């Protein structure tokens, strides 16, 4: 399985969309702050995840979530990035 996931920074409200084959390992990497995205996020929580059978399918969804329409979908379902609204 390949996962597309969305994190939200607890302090800054920044949203991060990523893709990985090992969600638990990737979240630990973010938590340690050893990735560029993890350093910007600080403390975060997982607000959404989806699983796909192939990397190609997951990549299509990741690209959508990073697009204008995808950001709008995330705003509608999980609140705007940069807000204190946490679901």
Query: Structural class of the secondary structure composition?
Result: alpha+beta
Question: How much is the radius of gyration in Å?
Answer: 12 Å
For the biggest β-sheet, the strand order reads: 2-1-3
Quick one: biggest sheet?
3 strands, antiparallel
The CATH architecture term is 3-Layer(aba) Sandwich
| Count of domain modules | 1
Secondary structure tally, helices:
4
Determine the mean pLDDT: 87
Contiguous uncertain segments of 5+ residues: none
**Amount of beta strand:** 25-35%
Distance between the termini: 25 Å
At the third CATH level, what is the topology name? Answer: GIY-YIG endonuclease
What does the overall shape look like?
globular
Order of helices and strands: EEHHEHH
**Overall strand count:** 3
CATH superfamily placement: GIY-YIG endonuclease
CATH uppermost class? Alpha Beta
Helix content: 40-55%
Tell me about this structure.
The chain is of the alpha+beta class and 87 residues long. The chain has a single domain, classed as GIY-YIG endonuclease (3-Layer(aba) Sandwich), CATH 3.40.1440.10. Helix content is 45%, strand content 26%. The protein contains four helices and three strands. A hairpin with a 5-residue loop joins strand 1 and strand 2 (15-20). The longest helix has 12 residues, at 55-66.
Please render the helix and strand layout as text.
Blueprint: E1 2-9, E2 15-20, H1 23-32, H2 36-41, E3 44-52, H3 55-66, H4 68-78
Antiparallel strand pairs: 1-2, 1-3
């Amino acid at each position: 399985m390949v996962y597309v996931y969305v994190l939200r920074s607890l302090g800054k409200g920044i949203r991060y969309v990523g893709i990985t084959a090992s969600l638990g390992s990737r979240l630990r990497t973010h938590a340690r702050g050893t990735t560029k995205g993890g350093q910007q996020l600080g403390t975060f929580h997982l607000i959404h995840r989806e699983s796909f059978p192939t990397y190609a399918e997951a990549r299509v969804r990741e690209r959508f979530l990073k697009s204008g329409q995808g950001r709008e979908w995330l705003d509608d379902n999980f609140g705007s990035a940069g807000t204190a609204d946490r679901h």
